[in-house]
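Translate structure to sequence.
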């Protein structure tokens, strides 16, 4: 009997804030239970650490420099490359999305015809502020998003509750039909605003929380690209200890709130008798820097930004396994094809990903390379990263490159790029990146296209006259 596939997605969830990934702080009982009956991918990455590009890459199984969805003002239209939703629909598989997609519009033929409570970019355009790059003034509203912690319900809280309710109703609807089906349920938390219901905030007393790593300005990472990001977010003046801890508390509270919504969906899957025949994949679109080096949000190549949780469970998936193979969101496309037993299409033959179902059953591949890139807000230059075995290599156009051994240095405290004894490894990593793209050429091409879009809008001044928002508005009605 063919299996159903349920993809659960959150926004801005770093794996360090999840019990299944070893956190002694995060209370995530539902994700932990999912992981206990499935496989945890210990080295999972997004392909661009910001919402719109990451979600476009996940939908198409291609890198953002290939599709052109490079910043939060270049949402997926459906014409750049086919989505895995399109492949499922073409095969006659009922396909439904509930919640955040962050494409351009429901009117576009993205391959997801049944969108329930969709959240797309603002005004069908997104924020061209993200395309200004070195012409961007500091986004001081971002600092406000960190320090403005509030007890209560935000539009995002109400939206996610509505998404969970819709998903539960949809699962009851599917129980009375014939499978297989494909569904994606996508929440907006723990993405800020840092407004948290009291019951979830109470899970994390301030006095129980540690300060983030390297939060002291004397310990900050001062690489030029990181300094630019920090300054552009209005974070060059450090937060107070209380501001920091309240932001950490709010983030963890939102993580637990999101986990509770995931639990409602998984409970409905069980209650409707579909759990035994449904493969479940949980991922996030990117991580959260969570105060490390005085940084918040995402948009850097730091592990807190590019690392994501990825948990796979269901029929045929090894239970209780931790998989060390490097994986990324471009692996979702072939996972969908594999899980639904769809016929591969010739035009998808050059996709860079592999099925997570296959990877979960194989011995860890110590040589697999995954890739991420960043071309959006709060950056003056293109950032490109590969993870190859334990090695993490970062190329910045115009700035010094970086090299880390994450096996011995998981918190990126020892940059080995300037150490002559690692020159062979450095060259191997450069070559591996060049097999994917020419990073300096990609940076040039993307910046040219961004300048074209800004000029078409009326220039920098016209972009700056548009009201700036720290996050996409949600409508929970």
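Result:
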């Amino acid at each position: 009997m063919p299996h159903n596939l349920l993809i659960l997605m959150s926004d801005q969830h770093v794996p360090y804030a999840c019990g299944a990934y070893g956190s002694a702080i995060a209370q995530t009982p539902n994700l932990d239970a999912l992981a206990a009956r499935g496989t945890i991918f210990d080295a999972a990455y997004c392909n661009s650490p910001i919402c719109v590009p990451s979600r476009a890459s996940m939908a198409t199984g291609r890198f953002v420099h290939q599709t052109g969805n490079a910043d939060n003002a270049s949402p997926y239209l459906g014409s750049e490359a086919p989505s895995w939703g399109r492949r499922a629909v073409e095969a006659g598989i009922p396909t439904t999305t509930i919640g955040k997609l962050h494409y351009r519009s429901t009117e576009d033929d993205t391959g997801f015809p049944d969108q329930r409570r969709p959240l797309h970019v603002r005004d069908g355009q997104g924020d061209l502020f993200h395309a200004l790059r070195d012409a961007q003034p500091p986004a001081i509203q971002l600092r406000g998003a960190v320090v403005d912690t509030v007890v209560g319900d935000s539009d995002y809280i109400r939206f996610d509750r509505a998404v969970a309710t819709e998903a539960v109703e949809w699962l009851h609807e599917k129980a009375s039909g014939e499978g297989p089906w494909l569904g994606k349920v996508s929440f907006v938390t723990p993405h800020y605003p840092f407004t948290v219901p009291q019951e979830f905030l109470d899970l994390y007393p301030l006095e129980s929380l540690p300060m983030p790593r390297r939060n002291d300005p004397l310990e900050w990472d001062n690489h030029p690209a990181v300094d630019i990001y920090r300054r552009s977010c209005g974070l060059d003046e450090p937060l107070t200890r209380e501001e920091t801890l309240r932001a950490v508390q709010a983030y963890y509270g939102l993580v637990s709130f999101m986990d509770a919504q995931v639990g409602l969906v998984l409970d409905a899957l069980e209650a409707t008798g579909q759990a035994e025949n449904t493969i479940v994949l949980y991922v996030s679109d990117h991580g959260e820097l969570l105060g490390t080096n005085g940084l918040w949000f995402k948009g850097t190549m730091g592990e807190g930004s590019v690392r994501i949780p990825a948990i796979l469970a269901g029929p045929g998936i090894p239970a209780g396994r931790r998989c060390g193979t490097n994986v990324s969101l471009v692996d979702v496309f072939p996972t969908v094809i594999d899980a639904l037993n769809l016929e591969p299409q010739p035009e998808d033959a050059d996709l860079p990903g592999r099925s997570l179902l296959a990877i979960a059953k194989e011995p860890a591949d110590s040589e697999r390379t995954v890739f991420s890139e960043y071309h959006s807000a709060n950056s003056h230059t293109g950032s490109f990263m590969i993870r190859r075995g334990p090695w993490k290599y970062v190329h910045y156009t115009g700035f010094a490159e970086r090299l880390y051994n994450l096996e011995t240095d998981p918190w990126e405290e020892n940059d080995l790029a300037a150490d002559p004894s690692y020159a062979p490894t450095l060259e191997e990593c450069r070559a591996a990146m060049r097999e994917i793209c020419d990073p300096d050429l990609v940076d040039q091409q993307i910046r040219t296209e961004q300048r074209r879009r800004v000029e078409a809008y009326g220039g920098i001044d016209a972009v700056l006259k548009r009201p700036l928002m720290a996050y996409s508005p949600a409508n929970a009605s």
